[in-house]
Amino acid sequence: PVLAGPLTVQPADPAIGPGPSARPSADAIRTVVAQSRPVRPKRQLASRLRHDGLKFCLMVGDSVVVLLSFGLVLLLLTKRDRPYELVDIAKPFALAAIAVWALRFQCLWVSRYNAVRAIEISRLTRAIAIAGAGALLADRFLKLYIHVEEVVAACTVAWFSLVAWRSVYRAWLAAQRRDGRFGQRVIIVGTDRRAVELTELFATHPEAGMHVVGLVGSQTEAEAAGLGALWLGSYHDADEVLGRTPSEGLIVCSTDVNPALLNALIREERPRRRHVYLDPGLTGIDFRRLQALPIAHQPLLYVDGPSLARIQVTYKRIFDVAVSALVALLAAPVLGLIALGMKLGGGGPILFKQRRVGLNGVEFNMFKFRSMVVDAEVRLASLTSENERTGPLFKLEVDPRVTRIGRFLRATSLDELPQLFNVLRGDMSLVGPRPALPSEVAEFPVELQARHQVRPGITGLWQVEARDNPSFEAYRRLDLFYVENYSLWLDLVILLGTIDQMVLRPLLKRRRPADADADAVDVSVSHSAVA
Questions:
Q1: In 3-state terms, the chain is what percent helix, strand and coil (to 5)?
Q2: Are 420 and 328 in contact (CB under 8 A)?
Q3: Is residue 20 packed enough to be buried (19+ CB in 10 Å), middle (13-18) or exposed (0-12)?
Q4: Taking each helix axis from N to C terminus, what angle separates 488-508 and 117-142, rounded to the nearest 10 degrees?
Q5: Sign of the dihedral through C-alpha 317, 318, 320, 325
Q6: Fewer beta carbons below 10 Å: N end or C end of the chain?
Q7: pLDDT tens profile 462-506
Q8: Cα 441 to chain centroid, rounded
Q9: What is the DSSP string of 369-424?
Q10: End-to-end CA distance of the chain
Q11: What CATH number labels 183-303?
Q12: Torsions phi, psi of 19, nearest 5?
């Protein structure tokens, strides 16, 4: 079946890959095993109907949003120098029909094209452009009396409206999947280190909607990794095992499966109507750097280099300065109101200044609106035992040091606004890894020092994808992914995701299983305050 909605929240997808740990945590194992309950065959039909319902919901939502967007713009812009005629009523419906066709043409109701936010936005942009061109073409032949400015305005409103609607839908679906609904049952073919890493990745990212119901491969390897309860059978019995085990997807680890078995699996799965995913074993590589390149009919993946051209670095800096200056100017009244509220709410310093590590490991003073009591760092020692994060980071969901106005500032991310001046000074960028404390950096694994190759950011991939994930592994993996793959397009996607987080975070906020495996990251909790 064709599944609606994202299978993953970018970038928790195979292009990013899991971390280096070959053995999942105890929590991850319990989560995966709990998801592997036997499923009656009747539930396959129910599962298909649920996913078809999601697709229908997305189609109807897109159609309504497009119709309202075109109708509203035409109503506001059309000059009324004559009575309403049938053509005036038909225009928004005709344009909406063209736009809906363009959305279908761009496969925006097929899961593999809207699973990753960057792909979805790219295809959405192309669909709206096609719809605009189609509207002008229809006007030429059907005499709909549509002006170019009306089409441009309608397409612009439709694009923003569709992005907003799909953001709400994505947030709702992610929350549902964290609660165990609308997931896709998958079988992993492989039991090597990569298969175990994928199993842990899906367990610690329930919003991906991938529920592992079993492993096919070596029983010895599965039991050694603590996943013996998920083992379904050996490669020799793969066809029989896959035939009797209900699932909607099959993930094949190319690192553990020989080509003959792989080809046989793909042939056999076609009549079963399962989705087949091939994991190439790559980690930390953005999908935009991968290109299918057949040579002598042999499919290969061409991998583009990670380096960002010098001119793009310059463009990034120009973009940072221009946007920061504009936002600071527009937000000046808000900054003033926050400062006044903090003074009236109890006094004390308005700004919080703290040393952080920036580009090339150079320390700088980072500014924030103070969201904690003045003696927050003194009180930290009594709270370290309650830390809800793994690794060197410290975070409490309900921190007693946070003031009343501080809770509001943190919930809306308004406490970060003073960092716009850090961006203007050149200490930070709008997008990048969050600047860490020197004490935290001292406990980072060696590979994570690479995060200092770029300017730290006000927002970043970790904030958008895993802000509420207590696992330090998610922090490590996403920061390194950004450093390896950052680009202007990725920055724009992250900024859009940041807006989603600020507006829709209450829907997204759910507790996830922590990665408590000490073998994954061998560091201890830092005794540093994060205000």
A1: 55, 10, 35
A2: yes
A3: middle
A4: 100
A5: positive
A6: N
A7: 888 877 666 787 888 888 889 888 888 888 889 988 887 777 765
A8: 25
A9: E--B-TTHHHHGGGTGGG--SSTT----TT-TTB-HHHHHHHHHTGGGTTHHHHHH
A10: 48
A11: 3.40.50.720
A12: -85, -170
Q: Whose structure tokens read 């939502």? A: 61
Quote the CA–CA distance of 41 and 123 in Å, as a whole number.
36
| Phi and psi angles of residue 303, each rounded to the nearest 5 degrees, phi first | -110, 115
Q: Is residue 458 within 8 Å of residue 486, measured between CB atoms?
A: no
Amino acid at 72: L
Closest CA to 39 of 210, 198, 196, 214: 214
Give Cβ neighbours of residue 499 (< 8 Å, ≥ 6 apart): none
The DSSP H or E segment spanning 186 is strand 184-189
pLDDT surpasses 50 at 3 = no
Above 90 in pLDDT, residue 232?
yes
Q: Answer yes or no: is pLDDT of 286 > 90.
A: no
Q: Distance between CA 363 and CA 419 in Å, rounded?
A: 15
Q: Which residues, listed in sequence order, are joined to residue 277 by a DSSP beta bridge?
A: 251
Q: How far apart are CA 171 and CA 95, in angstroms?
A: 28
- Give the mean pLDDT of the chain: 79
Q: What b/e sequence results for 121-137 when a residue is b if at least 16 CB atoms lie within 10 Å of its CB, and e otherwise?
A: bbbbeebbebbbebbee
Higher pLDDT, 473 or 242: 242
Q: How would DSSP label each residue in 1-25?
A: -PPPS-SS-TT-STTT---S-SS--
Indicate whether 39 pLDDT > 90. no
Strand bridging mode 351-357 / 363-369: antiparallel
- Kindly list the distances between the CA atom of residue 443 and the CA atoms of 176, 436, 446, 524, in Å, as whole numbers in the listed order: 36, 11, 9, 7
What letter represents residue 280's amino acid? P
CB 370 within 8 A of CB 352: yes
Q: Which ranges in the chain are annotated with CATH 3.40.50.720?
A: 183-303
Predicted confidence (pLDDT) per residue in 80-107, tens digit:
565 666 666 778 888 889 999 999 999 9
Residue 366 Rama label (left phi>0; alpha psi -120 to 50; beta) = beta
Per-residue pLDDT tens for 131-165?
999 988 887 777 767 788 888 999 999 999 999 99
Listed in order, strand segments (DSSP E) in 190-269 are: 210-216, 231-233, 249-253
Distances (CA, A) of 122 to 127, 187, 308, 482: 9, 30, 20, 19
Using DSSP's 3-state secondary structure scheme, residue 67 falls into helix
Which residues, listed in sequence order, are joined to residue 188 by a DSSP beta bridge? 215, 251
d(CA 484, CA 457): 15
The answer to whether the predicted template modeling score (pTM) of the entire model surpasses 0.90 is: no
